[in-house]
Amino acid sequence: MAKRGPVLVVDIGGTKMAGGVCDPDGTLLTWESVPTPAGADAQVLWETLESLLAAVLHRAGGPDLAGVGSGCGGPMRWPDGLVSPLNIPGWRDFPLRPALAERFGRDGVPVRLHNDAICMTVGEHWRGAGRGTTSMLGMVVSTGVGGGLVADGRLVNGASGNAGHIGHVIVDAENGPLCTCGGRGCLEAIARGPGLAAWAQSQGWRAGEADVTGKELAEDAALGHPVAQAALGRAGRALGIAIASATSLCDLEVVAVGGGLSQAGELLFTPLRAALAEYARLEFTHKVRVAPAVLGQTAGLVGAGALVLRGERYWAGD
Amino acid sequence: MAKRGPVLVVDIGGTKMAGGVCDPDGTLLTWESVPTPAGADAQVLWETLESLLAAVLHRAGGPDLAGVGSGCGGPMRWPDGLVSPLNIPGWRDFPLRPALAERFGRDGVPVRLHNDAICMTVGEHWRGAGRGTTSMLGMVVSTGVGGGLVADGRLVNGASGNAGHIGHVIVDAENGPLCTCGGRGCLEAIARGPGLAAWAQSQGWRAGEADVTGKELAEDAALGHPVAQAALGRAGRALGIAIASATSLCDLEVVAVGGGLSQAGELLFTPLRAALAEYARLEFTHKVRVAPAVLGQTAGLVGAGALVLRGERYWAGD
Question: B108-133: per-residue pLDDT in tens?
């Protein structure tokens, strides 16, 4: 019988580390984030996280924890929880799950860890845009394009814990850009922020400027820049095609789209829905609902909590 | 507690109706098929099936059945089991599951029905190419391209029982052929037998001949006809791209490929594997194993049996 009580929740990405305390119903009692010292070594990274979590627990009054749930950028060895986040070079096969268990997991309570995009998906399914559905794809469209998959009411892990990689669904096999994975025409290669910015620069937007990002692209699009808008249209179309494929394969009810680029709103969602309507034509696929993620920055923390608090649906790792 | 004992199994397609008796371990004690009277009305279709099943039960010695499992061509209303098989126009919303229950389901034993491609997938997962794996895509490449999905050791049904439609994963969104679904560039539009034959005819193979099929195409390819071989290469490449997408999304361990066109062997599988190697480049995707289905014509019957005999994995419809 699982212990009732609050859960220490963690969400680690290349930009920010977040920690919080989640009550049994999925409400965050407190949470906080700090910049990830992405260039630091393994020990400094761990100490930064440990301090953050100690402060959060202190602020919550030192609760009697029912467990610890964590999301972290991939790749990772799952369910062992040895993490090698792409954007945190100081952690390579860092034993994050064992370290969290040793430091915060007293009394044998569960300590669980999954990919950050999967935690976002779980959060949105439990308490956000996918609440009450049985079949959902969660997407994080940002510097990369990640995701997670819920089918028949449960999180899909896949053979190695990597299910949900919608970013490597192929959208334009013959003429698409090369992808960092080594393939061609993957959704991520087209729709990731840096890919979009590079494409827009090749079309004359801020040509020659260094270090422009998807965020600036979205801002300029909102101000009416036609090339920036065309770039978002390109991303939206690619997203719509990939979502159509995923809906056919997984018979999805809802797709929750989050991540920085989703803040572009209708400049992204209008072309997305147009492409989806063009390509999802079966009776069961044209009904799929695409919705912006609603939990914002906290989705990953809430989902990390659900790994412990709703383990029967979202955890099959032990 | 489910009853132990043999199960009456059924597999209905546009070409053949098959019936059999499956023992609790998945061995077919007897089975038989008859041509589907595809142009007949609903009553004649049912009587043909009923006679076939009565004969099969008689031959098996009138066993005390533990249930009835059936596959049928889609679409259907699932789990209600009202079927409207594309290639059997006489059945539109025909209540096949209720009819089987009334005629053969005495003593309240379970009577279950699913899509025929899903039953093939379940058969291959339980007793065929996917045995022992937790994550598998089954494919039927024939007049259409159908499939089914197993994730984390369970059949995925999806929001409306339609998960597994790999045939409508998009392979060539911009330049692919129109699909019967109304979309463009779906795997099925490229790789279905009639689509391949049409393409080959447009390239000069048997130009002008009426009613050529994928079967003749495969035969001519085996005899060395270069256009017929190119058509299989085109199908194999499309299959490889779609499988790469599905593997990224679902973290598949094995893909079992059956159906008439898979009989073309290496003329299909070599280009398939080449495209898969080109597009499935992540550490977890490049490991996926593509295998010919091994149960042949009996996969659907064995899978129909599993809906009853291994319901905890393969049935969530009630």
Answer: 899 999 999 999 999 999 999 999 99
CA B29 – CA B56 distance, rounded (Å)? 10
pLDDT above 70 (res A294): yes
CB under 8 Å to A65, separation ≥6 — which residues? A5, A6, A7, A8, A104, A106, A109
Question: A248 at the B interface (CB within 8 A)?
Answer: yes
Instruction: Tell me the per-residue pLDDT of B45-100, one tens digit each, with 9 for 90 and over.
Output: 999 999 999 999 999 999 999 999 999 999 999 999 999 998 999 999 999 999 99
From chain B, the residues in CB contact with A271 under 8 A are: none
Average pLDDT, chain B: 96
**Residues listed for chain B:** 318
What integer best gives the mean pLDDT of chain A? 96
Instruction: Give me the residues of B, 118-177, that contact A with CB < 8 A.
Output: 133-135, 149, 151-152, 154, 156-175
Contact A232, A257 (CB under 8 A): no
pLDDT category at A108 given cuts 50, 70, 90 is: confident
- pLDDT < 50 regions, chain B: 1
Report the DSSP beta bridge partners of residue A76: A83
Contact A152 B149 (CB under 8 A): no
Which structural domains are found in chain A, ordered by start? 7-120+298-314 (3.30.420.40), 132-294 (3.30.420.40)
When pLDDT is averaged across residues A187-198 and rounded to a whole number, the result is 95
Which residues share a beta bridge with A149? A137
| pLDDT score for A1 | 47
Determine how β-strand A67-72 pairs with β-strand A7-12. parallel
Rounded to 5°, the CA angle B139-B140-B142 comes to: 145
Q: C-alpha A116: how far from its chain's center?
A: 5
The pLDDT assigned to A2 comes to 62
- The C-alpha atoms of residue A60 and residue A20 are separated, in whole angstroms, by 9
Nearest C-alpha neighbor of A148 from the set A186, A114, A111: A114
Tokens representing A116? 């950050």
Q: Which residues of B touch A245 (CB under 8 A)?
A: 168-170, 245, 249
How close A161 comes to chain B (CA, Å)? 7
- Stretch (H or E) spanning A70: strand A67-72
Enclosing H/E stretch for B233? helix B226-250
What is the rounded distance in angstroms from the CA atom of residue B287 to the CA atom of residue B277? 9
One-letter amino acid at A23 equals D
